[in-house]
Specification:
six-stranded antiparallel beta sheet, repeat, alpha+beta, globular, five-stranded mixed beta sheet, 12% strand, Tripartite_DENN, 42% helix
Length: 1260
């Protein structure tokens, strides 16, 4: 068994070597000798060596005395107040060991050392008086040690103390030097180690009085050789030195949790971390670690650094921090911050000396000041608000009062209805650094006179036998137990989040086919986790954070551990994590757990706390008490002495039975084994099950599956139908739109289908039963039709037609009809198999379900799949759900109801998939092409293509591009080269060759100079065609060789057009603005169109305003042939420019315009947009420029503001009649008021719409 303590260490001043400056300190020559750091040394360590934990003297000494040796006088008041801190040492093989150090000051009685300090003091004063020191100080302040990885003003300087404290007079002052005693352990039992060191220091014989206590060697011998760590699930009662030599030994309990039920041991109090930082900073720090940012902690207290570092890394469980981890980094070693890798370091430095500027990847946490500086573009942890509120609930439960929490926690209740936490109001906390500094005053420092006086009083009271109050006697033990309970509750909350997020992670692990050695050699080039499929199941708002986390080494390490478990390498962290996921699935319906959008709070903390309480109240074992091991008489000393080396280096003979059971355990029950009768009862009940009972249980399960199918499809339909459908339904509040996320509902449907296909399997052939069935069907189909050239019989019947179509290559390029797309189950399976970013069977099954759902063929494909009775009988038992005919028909009927709504669950989920797009350009006259070089740019909800060159003499071609999402616009143009550059285009058809979606982009305009409005580039707005429209379009193309589109389904067209009355125009414009405002305030999942369509499509804002400006011209002939609306806007711009010139020259009186400054701003913004369009949009025609100007005016909030100045200019009086919108006061007032709501919207235009024109520098 492992020992509790491996080494006992004494570090301090080696009197034989004298004073030696600390080589790690860079400022020894610039401060007083009392403020300098000197080199310490390991004076002794017992035993000499432990084979399992080699002793590293330099690391132990540096971390035991992180400031080096420090000298003080009696004026510093440090003689009676030791300070405790822990530290960590990472060996070359990656293993860690923990150290615990107690630093105290003892008087220097060596005359040579005192004389040397006096000499250094005299030299320092001489240098100051000669002025040499001033120049050195100035150079230090100007240059200063700096960290290259941090900004240049990140400086480490010193704050000089008062002259009285820094001066040493050998004739008047007593000199004290720091010293450390410590222990080195492999497991961090902080409470026991601290109690041992503090009490051992108190047991040093300092008075000439009869002592009944043991020698120091006796306590050290006991802790080194007679105290062993308990086995998992057990606890051990140990005896430690008393707080006073006159008292009996103090007891403490070492306990060891038992995996996979409990979390690993953590003895550092998380309560202190929350008290120092608060909940918000802890969660932010936790998030930065998950995203593998560089994390720098800062404190002037080593123990604070250690508690925060160990505490925050423990919250990562089951993940571990795989990068550089240095909890305590002395300020003199700040150059280690130059490491260009993720790290977690604790900088031990004074708070007044550090200034950190913004760093893109650095998270800086000042523990002492409760301040954090976060990196740029930090993601948000899933369900962060509810997560923080659950933590606050636990803090309140354990009476952990964070300073200023009542004042800084937000009074708004943001608790989700799905979070079943205590009913008292829970609010978020916003940190106030200044309030924390003012109100959270730290207690008296260890070296202060107040703490010394309290210590003297406590020692006197103990010797008199008077019992102290609860805070001194029982409170340490009680607070330690409360800390362990609080640690357990908080860690369970954090683990619960990971369990819910990664509940199905095992389904997406790609296990290798080769051996362990081959996998080790090639794992860097292999993909071990199907990230795309996993992310497709997650809520959309969490995907960005999870995507970054899946790319981290932290996550990859867990997946590597999971794969290594194939070869028997068991990791306790993974065992615990998998066990929690297993219990979660059992609690919510078995292996195929259904996801929920609710925030699920932790429910395991109470159960695991029972194990901790049992071990602490009823220890399983008791260690032998300390006994006297030396015969030497105790000598009185004022220093901590070196111990008997020979005695402590001897390996004692300890019998295996020398650790008796504790008496408390004899009265208790063992929690490690279940009652003996439980397994016998369970096995006996299994034998009593009759075939009738089995059939009844199976039938109940079949009915439950059918009921779940009905509930799921209904909920998905209600979510798509919107709030009206939900209100009319009889479902409860859980079906409200606010609680429904489409991607989560689809993922839940995928989970349900896996449950259906897993029921009654004869033999499981893969992780996904559905995908295995699809592959078996595909294999059988290919075997029966191995001579066919196409995937389905339906497609093979088109072979003759397609061969004739392909035989005429030239004619094929000029055809404007789309070849029929296969619609078979096998075609969709083949498309999914071709996806390079989906690797696992479960991922492919989910991609196939999403694709079939988007194509509205899910029910049809399942009917085809289940129609093969021979394959069904070969794979499923007679009792399987899929072989129950009536239930199967109802199941297919419920899935068929999903065809009533449109899903884009495949298009929106796989953005990196390469999609083939079929593009057909339909000219006004059949077969005509352009001699110019034609290009096309497609834009969608996910991305935009670069310019796609249209092959010469081609109307029908295919291009492959990364998934663009739902197509929104198409920009088509040419370079106007050749003799026959002019081209009349009726419309353009684009088809997604995987989903089968067909988009129509109406045009009905010319491309070319000298015709129409002279445009060589046009923006076309697309609409997704329904099945009925596709059929009508197909018939139209086959019956009409011209294939003309409807008269108004095109881009902006020149007059003539039907003349509309003002009331009709007002009605059209009101409806259009109303649609835009409604669209803006809807959630993205409820938007059934795009802003571009609302602005530029049929009956869009551009079309309505075009009718507004065309009403009331004095001469219709003026705008026939050569003149367009754009000519009017250009003339208005010229008028505005002349007004601006007069404004600058001072010829214009400010009293002519009531809101003169606003009018001038409108002139400038108007002229800026016109100028920008003139320079950047030379290929656009006049109608295209009008369209662009209207869109930019909406974005710049100029539209309703420019109407007044336009109506007042002379150009309008010349070109418009009095009944027009710009000259009729009533119509103008209506126009400005109806467009006013658009001013409240923040409009973001697509790049294809804005032409890359930026906003003007001055906004109105």
């Amino acid at each position: 068994m492992n020992k509790f303590v491996d080494y006992f260490v004494i570090c301090g001043l080696d009197y034989s070597s004298g004073l030696e400056p600390d080589k790690y300190s860079e400022d020894n020559l610039h401060v007083s000798p009392l403020e300098r750091s000197y080199k310490g040394k390991v004076l002794a360590h017992y035993p000499e060596n432990v084979p399992t934990n080699p002793f590293d003297a330099s690391a132990v000494c540096m971390l035991s005395l992180p400031c080096g040796l420090k000298f003080r006088t009696q004026k510093h008041s440090v003689t009676l107040a030791p300070s405790f801190h822990s530290f960590l040492i990472t060996r070359e093989d990656g293993k860690r060991c923990y150290g615990f150090s107690l630093i105290f000051y003892e008087e220097v009685r060596n005359r040579d050392i005192c004389t040397a300090m006096q000499t250094l003091q005299a030299m320092y004063i001489t240098e100051l008086s000669s002025g040499m020191k001033t120049r050195v100080l100035q150079n230090t302040q100007n240059q200063g040690p700096q960290s290259r990885s941090l900004p240049r003003h990140f400086k480490l300087t010193h704050n000089p103390n008062g002259a009285a404290l820094t001066y040493y007079d050998i004739s008047k002052d007593k000199l004290f030097v720091s010293k450390s005693i410590g222990v080195i352990c492999q497991v961090a039992h902080v409470h026991a180690a601290k109690t041992f060191l503090e009490n051992l220091f108190r047991c040093v014989p300092r008075r000439a009085c009869p002592s009944t206590g043991l020698s120091l060697e006796s306590y050290v011998f006991n802790i080194l050789y007679e105290v062993e760590l308990p086995e998992p699930g057990k606890s051990l009662l140990v005896h430690l030195p008393p707080s006073d030599p006159q008292l009996p030994p103090t007891s403490a309990i070492l306990q060891n949790p038992c995996p996979p039920v409990e979390l690993p041991h953590l003895d550092f109090p998380l309560r202190l971390m929350f008290l120092w930082l608060g909940v918000d900073i802890v969660v932010q720090l936790f998030t930065c670690l998950l995203l593998e940012n560089q994390v720098l902690l800062r404190s002037a207290d080593c123990q604070r650094l250690m508690v925060v570092a160990e505490g925050i890394t423990s919250l990562l469980f089951p993940f571990t921090w795989p990068h550089v981890y240095v909890p305590i980094l002395p300020a003199s070693l700040h150059h280690f911050l130059d490491a260009p890798v993720p790290f977690l370091m604790g900088l031990y430095a004074s708070s007044e000396n550090i200034k950190v500027a913004s760093e893109a990847s650095l998270c800086y946490v000042d523990i002492d000041k409760c301040k954090v500086q976060l990196p740029e573009e930090m993601g948000t942890f899933p369900h962060q608000e509810d997560f923080i509120l659950e933590i606050w609930s636990t803090l309140d439960k354990y009476n952990v009062h964070v300073p200023n929490s009542e004042n800084t926690r937000n009074t708004q209740d943001v608790m989700s209805k799905s979070c079943t936490l205590p009913g008292r109001p829970q609010n978020r906390r916003k940190l106030s650094i200044h309030d924390t500094l003012d109100n959270d005053r730290p207690p008296s420092p260890p070296g202060s006179a107040r703490s010394e006086a309290l210590q003297r009083i406590a020692d006197i009271v103990r010797r008199t036998g008077v019992a102290l109050d609860q805070n001194e006697t029982t409170q340490p033990t009680d607070s330690y137990i409360e800390d362990l309970r609080f640690n357990n509750s908080i860690r369970e909350i954090f683990l619960n989040r990971f369990v819910h997020i990664f509940q199905s992670y095992e389904n997406f692990v790609i296990f290798p086919n080769q051996g362990k050695e081959d996998w080790f050699n090639n794992r860097d080039s292999m993909q071990n986790f199907d990230k795309a499929s996993f992310l497709s199941d997650q809520p959309e708002q969490d995907r960005l954070f999870l995507w970054r986390f899946l790319e981290s080494q932290t996550f990859a390490s867990l997946i590597d551990t999971k794969i290594l478990s194939m070869w028997g390498e068991v990791d306790n962290n993974l065992l615990i994590f998998d066990n929690r996921i297993k219990h979660l699935k059992q609690r919510y319906g078995g292996e195929n757990l259904m996801r929920s959008l609710r925030y699920e709070p932790c429910v395991n903390a109470h159960d695991t706390q029972k194990y901790i309480d049992r071990r602490l109240t009823n220890p399983d074992f008791e260690s032998p008490p300390p006994r006297e091991v030396t015969n030497n008489k105790t000598t009185i000393t004022r220093q901590f002495p070196l111990l008997d080396k020979e005695l402590l280096n001897k390996t004692p003979v300890v019998n295996k039975g020398s650790i008796p059971r504790a008496s408390a355990f004899k009265r208790g029950l063992t929690f490690s084994k279940p009652p003996t009768g439980l397994s016998d009862k369970k096995s006996g009940s299994g034998q009593d099950l009759s075939p009738a009972l089995i059939a009844q249980a199976n039938w109940t399960f079949v009915e439950k599956l059918l009921k779940d199918c009905k509930v799921r499809t209904k909920r998905m339909l209600l979510a798509k139908l919107g709030a009206e459908g939900v209100t009319l339904s009889s479902s409860n509040a859980l079906d409200s739109c606010g609680a429904v996320e489409e991607s989560t509902l689809v993922a839940s449907l995928c989970d349900f289908l896996e449950r259906v296909w897993s029921h009654g399997l004869q033999r499981k052939r893969g992780k996904s039963a559905l995908w295995s069935h699809l592959l078996a069907y595909q294999e059988k189909f290919q075997h029966l039709n191995k001579n066919d050239n196409y995937l389905t019989p339906d497609v093979s019947r088109l072979a003759s037609n397609l061969e004739n179509w392909m035989s005429q290559v030239t004619d094929n390029k000029l055809r404007t009809d789309l070849p029929e797309l296969p619609s078979s189950l096998q075609f969709d399976v083949a498309n999914v198999q071709a996806m390079s970013d989906v690797k696992t069977g479960i991922g492919m099954a989910r991609a196939w379900v999403r694709l079939a759902l988007e194509k509205k063929q899910l029910s049809k494909h399942f009917r085809t799949l289940l129609s093969d009775q021979n394959l069904l009988r070969a794979q499923y038992k007679r009792s399987a759900f899929l072989r129950c005919e009536e239930e199967r028909e109802q199941f297919l009927y419920h899935l068929l109801s999903l065809n009533a709504v449109d899903y884009f669950c495949f298009t929106s989920t796989y953005p990196t998939t390469v999609i083939p797009y079929r593009i057909v350009i339909v000219p006004n006259k059949k077969g005509t092409t352009s001699s110019a070089n034609v290009w096309i740019v497609l834009s969608g909800t996910l991305s935009e293509t670069s310019r796609i060159a249209v092959p010469k003499v081609t109307l029908n071609f295919e291009c492959k591009y990364q998934n663009l999402g739902v197509l929104t616009t198409l920009r088509i143009g040419h370079d106007n080269s050749g003799l026959y550059a002019k081209w009349m285009i009726d419309y353009v058809i684009v088809r997604n060759e995987i989903t089968g979606h067909i988009y129509k982009f109406p045009c009905g305009r010319w491309l070319g100079r000298g015709v129409d409005d002279g445009s060589t580039e046009r923006l076309l707005v697309g609409t997704l065609m329904s099945k009925k429209e596709e059929m009508e379009e197909s018939v139209s193309r086959s019956c009409n060789s011209l294939g003309r589109s409807t008269p108004r389904n095109r881009s902006p067209a020149p007059p003539p057009r039907p003349e509309l009355k003002p009331s009709q125009i007002q009605h059209m414009l009101g409806d259009c603005v109303n649609k835009i405002v409604k669209w803006h305030y809807r959630r993205s999942s409820e938007r059934h169109t795009t802003l571009t369509a609302l602005l530029c499509s049929e009956n869009g804002l551009v079309f309505c305003l075009e009718n507004v400006f065309l009403l009331g011209f004095k001469s219709a002939r003026l705008f026939m042939g050569k003149h367009y609306l754009w000519d009017y806007f250009v003339r208005v711009k010229e008028h505005f420019e002349s007004e601006l010139v007069e404004e600058v020259s001072g010829n214009r009186s400010a009293s002519l315009e009531r809101n003169h400054q606003e009018t001038v701003a409108v002139w400038r913004c108007y002229c800026h947009l016109i100028d920008e369009m003139t320079h950047t949009s030379k290929t656009l025609g006049k109608d295209g420029k009008f369209q662009l100007f209207i869109c930019l005016s909406v974005r710049e909030h100029l539209l309703h503001r420019m109407l007044g100045p336009m109506a007042a200019c002379k150009v309008t009086l010349e070109m418009y009649e009095e009944n027009s919108f710009l000259r009729n006061r009533g119509l103008l007032t209506f126009l400005r008021q109806i467009l006013l709501p658009l001013d409240e919207l923040d409009v973001v235009l697509e790049k294809s719409v804005s032409h890359g024109i930026s906003s003007p520098s001055q906004h109105v």
